């Protein structure tokens, strides 16, 4: 229901999912259904005249935020968000930070139970550098992500398990 239009702005951002199509109303809501301010992450809700659910807002299950220019950015799925020490944590944010490391070619994060914080992230990475280790990557992350985003554990894999269609099987990661 959104179209990418980054070339028109001169801004290149691989994370944008664009702006709403003509005839589609979009808003981002918190867990109580209240619209959140620009820049704040919430669930993407849509409304349009050709929808099966006429007149009502439809929650998509996608978490995103809108920037000042009206572009929407996907942050992951609502069902993958975790709460760590009272903070909403989106695995996608950590994954995007990990992928900025020059040696990381694949990254995934999941929520795991934690006795102190309720939940924490656990990261899985595929690296081209065989000398990269968990303490080194934790140190690299320390200046790049918030404390609540820091993974409790980082697992290095030679490759991600694959689904029959060739996509990574993230459900196999534990």
What's the N-to-C terminus distance? 33 Å
Structural class: mainly beta
Shape: globular
What's the helical proportion of residues?
10-25%
What order do the strands of the largest sheet run in, or round the barrel if closed? 1-2-6-5-4-3
Largest sheet: 6 strands, antiparallel
Number of helices: 3
Average pLDDT: 86
| Secondary-structure element series | EHEEEEEEEHEEHE
Number of strands: 11
Radius of gyration: 18 Å
Overview of this protein structure:
The protein is mostly beta strands and 174 residues long. The radius of gyration is 18 Å and the shape is globular. The N terminus is likely disordered.
Give me a quick take on this structure.
The protein has 174 residues and is mainly β. It has helices at 6-9, 91-98, 134-142, and strands spanning 2-3, 16-20, 24-29, 42-48, 58-66, 72-77, 82-84, 87-89, 104-114, 118-127, 153-156. The model is unreliable at 1-10 (pLDDT under 50).
Task: Provide keyphrases for this structure.
about 170 residues; mainly beta; three-stranded mixed β-sheet; globular
